[in-house]
Amino acid sequence: MRILFTTLSIIFAIVGIILSILPFGYIALIPIVAALVFTLIASKLLVKEGKNTGIIKILFAVIIISTGLSIYNALKPNEIEIDQDAIEKQKQSDEETLEELEDIEIED
Amino acid sequence: MIYLSLINKNFMNRLLLFFVLLTSVTLHGQNNTIAAGEKLTFTASYNMSGLMTDLVQVTMETKEVKTSKATLLRLRCKAQTYNKWDNFFKINDIYETYVNPKNLTPYLHKREINEGGYYKKMQYNFNRGLNSAKSVKTKKRKDGTFWDEKKDLTIGSKTNDIVTTIYYIRNLDIHKAPVGSSDNFTILFDNEETSMKITLLSKETISTKIGKKECYKLAISLNNDVLSGSTNDNLLWLTADDNKIPVYAKFKVPVGNGELKIQSATGLKH
Question: A101–B65: do the CB atoms touch at under 8 Å?
Answer without folding.
Answer: yes
